[in-house]
Each structure stands twice: as structure tokens, then as C-alpha cells.
Design a protein that fits this description.
- The chain is mainly beta and 277 residues long.
- The chain has 1 helix and 13 strands; from the N terminus they run αβββββββββββββ.
- The chain has a single domain, classed as Porin (Beta Barrel).
- Strand 11 and strand 12 form a beta hairpin.
- This is Outer membrane protein beta-barrel domain-containing protein.
- Keywords: Signal.
- It comes from Flavobacterium segetis.
């Protein structure tokens, strides 16, 4: 993604250098902000997210212009196991270097997820006057979506970790000093490893002239990630394995169970802002 961010930032700088007389804008957007996932063991609830943004639009003709900006966004949601009590399996290595199958069972497992990101949009705008002081606007383009923090807070009524060593046909379910056993009222925090991606972005709305120097802008928007923001090279247990304790387990999160999972931000809602001529 290094090429993408350099490409987009480069275009934004060029537009700025050639658009000192452009129309500037500042505003915010709010609506449904979902972190779409194809992890089969997980389901999520929909919550409200939003962004604040600044930028400018350089007119090319009476109807067309090109714009760029900077946005700070936040997505949040709750994620659950598909079943209230489920067992997921992963491969781990203990403190002695022996490999084993790690079976984790939880009850009423839940994650509170919060994703924060910087967004750099570049878009083409079409506008048409439809009445005195009122313009119709349509914007379409791309955004570079750079996550700055993807935090998870996990909780469960209980966690039970069982090890199975297939070479010797041995199961261990109660050896706390080696990380095997049960724990009640589990809670832990963690972070997903992420990477920058491109998003598609669309806006459809209207501009209302307030005076010769200021306009009110109101629109509907749709942003959708084109690739996964997850960045990890191996599958992990959603409740981490601790080789020295059964009560101090790290939260890796349900999305970490599949290194190839498609985790994409998707948001739609209302955008409101002011234009400055």
C-alpha cells in the first residue's frame, strides 16, 4: 500500500498547489459505520460512527471540479460468537517447544470494537444549479483509509482452555501453571494489526447559498473498503494462549482466527458542512 498512499498524497499536494483559489469546506458525517467481516464464527451488531473533515474543491468547468481533503473517522461495533457457547481450535506451542491443539470454549463471549482512522479523499464533483441559491451535487472518488488504532475489549462469563497432544494422545484440562484450565468472568483488551487500504466514496446532495462567501452543504454518503484492513501472517486463538497462566490470557479477537479474513470498513449516512469561497 505504500504506492497508494504516496500516489494519493502526491495528487492532493498537486491539487492544493494549483488550487489556492479553490473553494474550501469543513464538516462532519455520521451514520451506520460497520466493519464488515466474512469470519464464519462471528456476527456483529450495527452501531453509529462518524468523521470530521476538511478539504477544498478546484473548479475545472462550470459543472465539474476536483477535490481533496483530510478526514478523521471512527467506527465501532459489538461482535459475538454465532453461538452463545462455542469451542474454537488453534495450533500452539508450549513452553517446552511441543506443539499441541488448543481448544478454547467461552460462554457469552463479546467484543467491543473501536476503529479509528485517517482518510485522504480525492474525488470528482458534478454540480448543477436547480434553483436560485441551490445546487445539486454529486461526488465520486477514492479514499486512502489508514487505521491508527483498532482496539478490542473482550469479555466472557467463562473461558476454558484444553490442550490435546496428538503425538501421545493426551488431553490436559487442568494444569494452570502451563496455561490449561478454566477461568470465570474473563475480560481483556487487545488490538488488531492493520494496514492501509483504498475505499470507494460517493456523495449525493445539495448546496444552499447562505451569502456570497458561505454555503451550507447537505448530502448522503456511502464509503466502502476495497480490501481487508487486517494485517497478520498466521491464525491465532481469539483468546490467547499463555504458557504460564490460565487466568492471564491476551485478547486476540475473533477476526484473528482467520489470517485471510476480509475485514472491510463500510459506512453510509448523512454529511453536513460549510463551503467557504
Amino acid at each position: 500500500m505504500k504506492f497508494n498512499v504516496k500516489f494519493i498524497v502526491g495528487i492532493a499536494v498537486i491539487l492544493f498547489c494549483n488550487g489556492l483559489n479553490a473553494q474550501f469546506y469543513a464538516g462532519m458525517q455520521a451514520g451506520v459505520a460497520n466493519i464488515k467481516s466474512d469470519v464464519k464464527a462471528a456476527r456483529s451488531s450495527t452501531m453509529i460512527g462518524g468523521a470530521v473533515k476538511i478539504g477544498y474543491i478546484k473548479s475545472l468547468t462550470d459543472h465539474f471540479g476536483v477535490g481533496a481533503g483530510l478526514e478523521f473517522s471512527q467506527y465501532q461495533q459489538k461482535v459475538f460468537l454465532n453461538q452463545g457457547s462455542s469451542t474454537l481450535t488453534n495450533f500452539e506451542v508450549d513452553a517446552t517447544g511441543s506443539a499441541f491443539i488448543y481448544n478454547i470454549t467461552t460462554g457469552n463471549y463479546k467484543e467491543d470494537q473501536k476503529l479509528q482512522a485517517i482518510q485522504i479523499p480525492i474525488f470528482l464533483q458534478y454540480k448543477k444549479n436547480i434553483n436560485k441559491g441551490i445546487d445539486f451535487n454529486f461526488r465520486a472518488g477514492i479514499k486512502y483509509f489508514l487505521p491508527t488504532n483498532y482496539k478490542i475489549e473482550s469479555s466472557s462469563s467463562f473461558v476454558k482452555g484444553i490442550a490435546y497432544y496428538p503425538d501421545v494422545n493426551l488431553s490436559i484440562d487442568n494444569l494452570p501453571e502451563y496455561g490449561f484450565g478454566s477461568q470465570t468472568n474473563y475480560s481483556a483488551s487487545g488490538n488488531y494489526e492493520t494496514k492501509g487500504i483504498l475505499m470507494s466514496t460517493f456523495e449525493l446532495g445539495f448546496t444552499f447559498e447562505l451569502n456570497k462567501k458561505n454555503d451550507l452543504y447537505a448530502a448522503m454518503f456511502l464509503d466502502s473498503g476495497l480490501k481487508s484492513i487486517l494485517d497478520q501472517d498466521k491464525n491465532e486463538s481469539y483468546v490467547g494462549y499463555n504458557p504460564t497462566s490460565s487466568t492471564d490470557r491476551k485478547s486476540n479477537g475473533l477476526y484473528s482466527t482467520d489470517k485471510n479474513a476480509n475485514i472491510k470498513p463500510v459506512a453510509f449516512g448523512l454529511s453536513l458542512g460549510f463551503n467557504f469561497h
